[in-house]
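Need C-alpha cells for this chain, all 141 residues.
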Amino acid sequence: MLILVKQDEYIEKIKGGWLEMDVVIATPSVMGKLSTVARVLGPRGLMPNPKTGTVTMDVAKAVTESKGGKIDFKVDKAGIVQSLVAKVSFDSKKIEENANELLQTIVKLKPSSAKGTYVRSVYMSSTMSPSIQIDTKFMAQ
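Here are the C-alpha cells for all 141 residues:
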C-alpha cells in the first residue's frame, strides 16, 4: 500500500525502480506529479484511476476499502470477467478463499432479468501460463 504523503520522495524512489506496493492512492491534485512515473506505474496496473476509486479526495475511505479486500474486475463485451485473485506468495487456502469470494460476488450481481445459466465456465491461470478449467457445478447459480 502506498499513500503519497511524502509524494516527491516516493516519486523519486519509483523513478529509481522501487515498486514494492499493491496499490497507489492519490488525490486529484497529485496526479500531475504522478504523470512523470506513469510509464512505470501504468503497465503494472498501479497508476491511480478515478474509475477504480484510487483517485479521490477521501483518501481514508479508499485506504480502508483497499485494506478490506476490495474486489476489482473487468468485464468485456463478450461477458468475460477478468480479475486478479492471488499473488505467487499466497498459500493455496488463501487463493481458494479469494477465488470463491470473486465467484460468489459475480453470482450475487446477477441481474434478475438474466435467465438460464449465468456462469458458463470458469478458468484460472497465472501470468504467462495455460489456464485450468474449474468445475462450475458446485457453484450456487
